[in-house]
Amino acid sequence: MFYYDIDPVLVQVGPFAIRYYGIIFALGILFSFLAIRYLAKKRQLPLSSQDFDELLVASTVAVLVGARLGHVISSWGYYSSFPLQIFAVWNGGMAFHGGFLGLVVAGYWFAKKKKIHFYDLADIAVIPAALALAFGRIANFLNGEFYGTPTSLPWGVKFGNIPEFRHPVQIYEAIKNFVIFVVLWQLHNLFNKKVDQKIPKGTLFWTFVFLYGSVRFALEFVKEVPTYAFGLKWGQFWSIPMVAIGGYMLWKLCSKRES
Length: 259
Description:
two-stranded parallel sheet; 6% strand
């Protein structure tokens, strides 16, 4: 078992602090942007350097606003009492589902504006996004935010004043995202090799949606967060439509390919 004794602050200058969380978050956005740019050129999408700059700004704003709003809504009991903390993003608190929804909206708007198919962009965007999310969960661990239910397993972690050893769900989710990244990367390479076979657009995007929602739903059971209706947690309510819609769309795409 392990004791959490990590200082989440890399550098402190007076009231200003540079946290590992913020650095990893920024690097994740930069990596995703560069990877999307590379994959888009490889797929010969008609996008200029200026278009990619516009995409970077739009997607960054959408992710930040969506992820923060998602977290604030899910923790409204706290933020209603301390409204100024809504803007304290450096303390952590980003909800994936809100950020993902914001990114989808921004991607759809961008694709429509540039007159390209949304799936052409979405299918390549989810690949680096999965890897960036994996590092983001490691950042959550370094930041010491949210933790799992009590456990006696040998890899349990003792977080500060939190009683008992806990499941390191941040690491579980990081592993989940790494696995999804590998699956998407392998599918991408497989699709590129089989140039003689028509692979439906949207396959990678909906694979990401389905896999993320499915595993996230299961991991919520070992996360120490409040339950809502039917004994389910906030993340599970958001994951249910991801599983249902993602599964349906994959079935629909497979049916379309066979017909």
